[in-house]
Structures are given as structure tokens and as C-alpha cells.
Amino acid sequence: xxxxxxxxxxxxxxxxxxxxxxxxxxxxxxxxxxxxxxxxxxxxxxxxxxxxxxxxxxxxxxxxxxxxxxxxxx
Length: 74
Hints:
The protein is α+β, with helices and mostly antiparallel strands. The protein is built from two helices and five strands; from the N terminus they run βαβββαβ. The protein has a five-stranded antiparallel sheet with strand order 4-3-2-1-5. The chain is globular.
């Protein structure tokens, strides 16, 4: 399952980031989105806009296409 597939207020743990983009890997690492990190979806924008996620107590906006590359487990 990927982050973009989680329901609102659903919590999960990050398993892996499946992307060839070193920029995405670096950005996720800076935000604390790494294997084992808890993550929760708090809000979704209308359409394909960004989603709001809570990662280790901090809130972040994550693009849908980036969320689709983040594998999680519930």
C-alpha cells in the first residue's frame, strides 16, 4: 500500500520510498519520512492537490505523485 491510498486519519508506518529521484529521497530524509517512521494522513486537497500528513509530530504537505512512491504498512 502507498501513502496516497491511506484514508483520512489513518496511521501507518513507512516501509520504503520507491523512486529513482535522489531529490525525493533527500527531501523525505530531511522531513523524517524514512523506513519505520509513523505517518498519518490528516487532509486531502480537492482533486489531485497535495495531502497533509503528520510525520513524527510535524505537519507536511505532500504531492500526490510523491505520496504514491512512499510504501506504507498499516
